[in-house]
Write a structure and sequence with these properties.
Number of strands: 18
Largest sheet: 6 strands, antiparallel
Low-confidence stretches: none
Shape: elongated
Distance between the termini: 118 Å
Number of helices: 11
Order of helices and strands: HHEEEHEEHEEEHEEEHHEHHEEHEEEHE
Strand order of the largest sheet: 8-7-6-11-10-9
Strand content: 15-25%
Mean pLDDT: 85
Structural class: alpha+beta
Length: 533
């Protein structure tokens, strides 16, 4: 009987301990699986959030670049149109003086009225002789009569035409001349532009959409300046065997833009790192405009967390085996104690993950702040200001108040750089920004629009009221003296003010109106504010 009881007790204890051991293994395995799954999910969410932020940053940079190129095309076209008009005014005044063809051509030649980029012709009705007013020669090939001469105007994007009893006159600026100026201006600006964390923008001009060894020309690449002007190939591979040029070409052909990743050297370094890029096709010039950010910080984060998770899982496995042996000797009480201890350990690990999440969120906010502030002056940059103006215009269209803008430019800023150097120029920009910011209303905004240009956004201000406020800004600048190497540098600014009115349809219209008035301020002698006439 006693033997039977011992056997029962042995079976009971053995069964109980085995049950406890199975329970411990089940609970431990469940905890390990849940912890690993939650950690991997949190890492995935954080990495996706960072990746989306980086994607938005590079896309915004390219979208803004394309928008600036379009703005530059409009600006240069308007400037050439104004220049053609000024030349025409002088030609027209010469026409009004009368006289024969030879006398007219002579007066135009002696007055040097025709400037670079403008084609000018004079057709003598009676003789059919065709004069070039550009190089002052008689063109031997003629033009084929009056009707053909009139048709010549259609070859020019901008043209002006006049007739007298003796001759006909045509002035024209070709589309090729304007587009060449736009391309040169865009390449100059992009070549010098720098983004956050040594970022830059590159341009490839496609010459063969079928790809190959000479499918494109590298126009701008601040990280490969030696390659600028040379052909590039779709067969080029990175250290992982990827063909980024081929992926880029196929992507823009299919969708016009794409994200892609590859391995490329960092700026001013031989270090090769993982890079995420965004490129878009600018069809008017067959340009592929792209930029990118490196992913080594994200890759390092994922690698570090994966190793930490592996170490934690290994440590837990060893710990549970030891606890299983102890559980067989110390029974359920020790298991309960261990469970409480596990909760403390897991809570500490979760707190660590929470702290890392907080650090990553802080870094994300820092990246976003860099993307929307001008690094020199600390003012809003063009991208951030455009977003605010779009919001203000949307409120106006909902009949929720009004607003005005003022586009400003430092007068003769190039003289400061030439006389004192670019360090002094940067000092003037910084001091000027601080002085202007200190005089603004809290609800208004100020951005560095580009170079020495600034843009003011004045909420709930009609144009006349805005012009009064901007006049105070002009006086502030005029009174400012910036000390540099024992000398005081004084500057003035010209301002163009425009308000959202019923005849304004888009933000571009509003900015163009302010730009035109800024131009009037400069033409009128500078150091002045021009608003509604």
């Amino acid at each position: 009987m006693k033997i039977a009881q011992n056997r029962i007790r042995l079976l009971y204890y053995s069964g109980s301990l085995c049950l406890v051991l199975v329970l411990l293994v089940s609970l431990g395995g469940s905890y390990l699986y849940s912890y690993a799954a939650q950690t991997r999910d949190k890492i995935r969410q954080i990495s996706e959030s960072i990746l989306e932020t980086k994607k938005k940053y590079v896309k915004d940079a390219i979208d803004l670049t394309v928008q600036e190129i379009d703005i530059e095309r409009d600006r240069l076209t308007d400037a050439e149109k104004a220049r053609l008009g000024r030349v025409w005014d002088r030609i027209d005044a010469t026409l009004a003086r009368g006289g024969d063809t030879a006398g007219f051509v002579k007066r135009v030649r002696e007055g040097k009225m025709v400037s670079d980029g403008i084609d000018a012709f004079c057709l003598e009705r009676e003789s059919g002789r065709l004069y070039s007013l550009t190089d002052w020669t008689v063109l031997p090939q003629g033009i084929g009569g009056v009707d053909a001469f009139r048709g010549l105007a259609d070859r020019y994007r901008l043209n002006m035409f006049a007739e007298t009893d003796l001759f006909l006159v045509l002035l024209g600026i070709s589309g090729e001349y304007i587009e060449a100026a736009v391309r040169e201006s865009a390449q100059y600006r992009i070549r010098r532009e720098r983004l956050a964390d040594d970022g830059y923008i590159w341009i490839h001009q496609i010459v063969d959409y079928d790809g190959g060894e000479r499918y494109a020309i590298c126009l701008v690449h601040p990280n490969l300046t030696d390659a600028e002007g040379s052909f590039i190939s779709t067969e080029t591979v990175d250290i992982r065997g990827n063909k980024p040029n081929l992926v880029e070409l196929e992507g823009v052909k299919k969708d016009g833009a794409l994200y892609y990743d590859y391995w490329f050297k960092k700026m001013d370094s031989d270090e090769i790192a993982h890079k995420l890029s965004y490129a878009a096709l600018y069809k008017p010039y067959d340009w592929v405009i792209g930029t990118g950010v490196y992913l080594d910080d994200l890759d390092a984060l994922l690698d570090r967390e994966a190793k930490a998770l592996g170490r934690t899982q290994g440590a837990y496995l060893v710990l549970f085996c030891g606890l299983g042996v102890l559980a067989l000797a110390l029974s359920l009480a020790l298991i309960m104690f261990f469970e409480r201890r596990m909760e403390v350990l897991i809570g500490g690990l979760q707190a660590e993950v929470t702290d890392k999440n907080r650090q990553l969120e802080t870094e994300k906010r820092r990246i976003e702040e860099i993307a929307y502030l001008d690094p020199l002056t600390g003012l809003l940059n063009r991208r951030a200001m455009l977003a605010q103006i779009e919001q203000s215009s949307a409120r106006v269209l909902r009949h929720e108040g009004t607003f005005s803008i003022a586009l400003a430019d430092i007068d003769y800023f190039k003289r400061i750089n030439d006389e004192y150097g670019h360090v002094a120029g940067d000092l003037v920009l910084t001091a000027l920004s601080s002085a202007l910011k200190s005089r603004m209303r809290e609800e208004d905004s100020l951005a560095r629009w580009g170079g020495e240009e600034f843009l003011f956004l004045l909420h709930n201000a009609e144009e006349d009221e805005a012009a009064v406020g901007i006049e105070r800004m002009r006086e502030t600048v005029e009174a400012l003296s910036v000390s540099f190497e024992g000398r005081g540098i004084r500057v003035t600014m010209s301002f163009g003010v425009a308000s959202w009115t019923d005849d304004i349809r888009t933000v571009d219209d509003l900015i163009k109106r302010a730009d035109n008035r800024l131009y009037e301020a400069k033409e009128g002698g500078r150091n002045r504010v021009v608003g509604r006439h």
